[in-house]
Design a protein that fits this description.
This protein has 498 residues and is α/β, with parallel strands linked by helices. 39% of the residues lie in helices and 12% in strands. The protein has two domains: 245 residues, no CATH class; 221 residues, Rossmann fold. A six-stranded mixed β-sheet has the order 9-8-5-10-11-12, with helices on both faces. The protein is globular. Bound molecules: guanosine-5'-diphosphate (GDP).
Amino acid sequence: SSINPTIQQPVAGGGGEEEEVLSSEQYSCVSRQQLHIIRSSYSSSKPSPFLLSRLKEYEQRHKRCDPFSESFNRSSRELIRVQNSPDSLDCRYIVWTPVNGLGNRMLSISSSFLYALLTNRVLLVDFGPDMVDLFCEPFHNSTWFLPRDFTFKGRANTPEFRETYSLGKLLRREEEEEEQKKEMPYVASLLQLFLSYDNDDYDKLFFKSETQPLLEKVPWLVLRSDQYFAPYLFLMPCFRAELDRMFPDDKETVFHHLGRYLFSPSNQVWGHITGFYDAYLAKADRRIGLQIRVFSLDKTPASLILSQVINCIQEESRIIILPNATTTTTTTASSSGRNRTTTTTTAILVASLFGQFYTELNKMYKEWNEKAGATVVGVYRTNHEEIQVLGSSSHNMKALVDIYLLSMCDVLVTSPRSTFGYVAHGLAGLTPWILQSQDIEDEEQRVKEPACRRGVSKEPCLQFHANYYDTNPDHREPGGPVPVIMDCEDFQYGLKLV
Ligand code: GDP
């Protein structure tokens, strides 16, 4: 595998490293070039011309406002001014901070980017060491890294930061102080948007259109979110027209386009992906990705999940049909006029933290192959980490390898409630088969039927209780149905674009 020149995080206001960053970014993002070629040969969905023009405009803005720019320095100076409304700043930012696993993170980064597109902000990321080597720089000739000596770098995920800077706390304080109910006491230069799973009703006020004008004047927004909150943006009247222009026909491919635009694996990760793909998946006629995420093996024994997976792929979806029945097909070779038997081969990629699923499936299909007298089904895996690790670069790289390999499959079976699976099928642009929820009570140690169901959309689910919009359907945009479902297939009260 090729080695990626490490992408350096910049120092605020330049400092001699610009060249290093640009050179590593510019000359070495192999995945971006190769994915472009691979995908353009089969991707049916194309981004709209308006989305493309907004992306182009964004790139110019990013370059103009990036951490090497004078505008960035000007905006940074606002952070030390406490009570004055900012001078006319041409650059405003949304800074993404990490929460939870890689799937969660990729979903919230893409949502932040959509918000940045809608509000003319610049997206910067506060990656820790566990993420800096995962992706290529997404924006041409620029960087998205928050400078490593920046004032709140690495500090924004503390309870104190939330208490001091979060929009929710600010709105709550205002409500408590009756006389200041309607207006902010001053234009803050920094506010945190607390939109992770543990947010509260005050934090959710971010999703009211009426709150947005307050935020417009704030140069620095710091986001804490582990969620794909894009569906909420579609429910906000203030953004609806713009979103309809960006995604005129198809609301199912929002993450698909944004995720593909933003996330190109670094050369190191890409080397692992292509090495594995070429060795095991490329030659097969069909690639089936099985994403088996088990949140608790104590609650749901592996044997039960395995039966469920087998029921899903063989019975419910009939993705895999017994090899001796129909995977061996007969075709006629037209030139010679003679009959020739060809074998349709299937590669199954098993992505899971736990090794036993691969072991069992491999054993099972090996026996089938022996009976069929040919390798009709091959079972493969890249790794099995056994436990989820937070803060490890190599662990995250392996996760990204699995996500990308899944996204290069032709059919996907995913686990319910897993953002890891959402990212894989979203990048692939596939509607997955979703396994039935694994929360099976002890007395019901049997596979629930159906073992899996076809999803309703290619989009990820926002795993929030949507209480604000649930109870206020009138807030939805008049004059047309909002293309959002209120309960995801795998998450009651979740939201999903369809
Ligand atoms: P979620 O918890 O399923 O919603 O997905 P996340 O990606 O947010 O968090 C799960 C984390 O566990 C991943 O980021 C990986 O670190 C790890 N993980 C889970 N499933 C897999 C897998 O199939 N392969 C690898 N390599 N890591 C996994």
